[in-house]
Design brief:
Elements (H helix, E strand, L loop, with lengths): L8 H38 L2 H19 L1 H12 L21 H6 L1
Helix pairs in contact: 1-2
Length: about 110
């Protein structure tokens, strides 16, 4: 085997990390373009500054969420991984109250 054909694991990891970063950057760029289009569309359709401001704030929240995906993933994961309560709540079934049953009421 020639040494030119050997690919080291470090090279693969570097390539994968680079591609992952490029994909994240592309997704963020597309999201920015979509948010700008949504804000312009909100103003175009409504001619209202309030609707435009709402579209801008919601778009900013989406962009913030995309930028902070790792932080959000950690927060959600920590809440899901929490241990459940020590024991399940007990359910007590009460005796039937005196009076007509649901079947008897249905026949009336």
């Amino acid at each position: 085997m020639k040494s030119e054909n050997v690919m080291l694991a470090g090279d693969v990891l570097t390539w994968a990390t680079t591609k992952t970063t490029q994909v994240k950057t592309l997704i963020l760029a597309v999201a920015v373009v979509l948010v700008i289009a949504a804000v312009i569309s909100a103003y175009w359709r409504t001619k209202s500054w309030v609707a435009t401001l709402v579209a801008f704030v919601l778009g900013a929240l989406v962009l913030w969420g995309i930028n902070n995906m790792d932080s959000l993933k950690g927060k959600v994961g920590s809440e899901i991984d929490e241990k459940p309560a020590a024991s399940a709540p007990h359910v007590r079934v009460a005796q039937a109250l005196p009076g007509p049953s649901a079947h008897e009421i249905g026949q009336l």
